[in-house]
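Incident review: delayed structure delivery

Summary: a single-chain prediction request sat in the queue longer than the usual turnaround. Root cause was a stuck worker, restarted by the on-call engineer. No data loss occurred. The affected request and its eventual output are reproduced below so the record is complete for anyone auditing the incident later.

Affected input:
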Amino acid sequence: MLSSYLQFAPWLGIVLGGVLGCTLLGLIAMSRGAGFADVAGNPGKQLWSVIFAIPVPFLLELGAGGWIGLLIAFVWLVASPIIGLKTVFKPEATPDMTQLVIAHVIFAIIVLTVFMSVVHLMA
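Output delivered after worker restart:
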């Protein structure tokens, strides 16, 4: 029972981190004149935010749980959604690169903070 509980923690952290990160991006987009529903209210974008968070536990382990793994996961969470937005998901409707980087740095911080908090609290 305990091992299944501990295995649940990373998945909960991934889902909560992705959803909360996307929701925060929606609030940021709203402050910049875009609609909240266009970002955080879109189930597809919520799903992609969770999908981008799936590799986080594996990336954190690349650095043996240290700063290198955290840096790799951070770069992944900033770069992968930007590359996806610029190449696949309506590249003509994306804001300039500075706004994208700032927004996704915040997204990465939220996802990593939520993920690590959930895993730590459930350990």
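Verification: Helices lie at 2-31, 36-39, 43-53, 56-62, 67-87, 97-122.
Action items: add queue-age alerting; document worker restart procedure.
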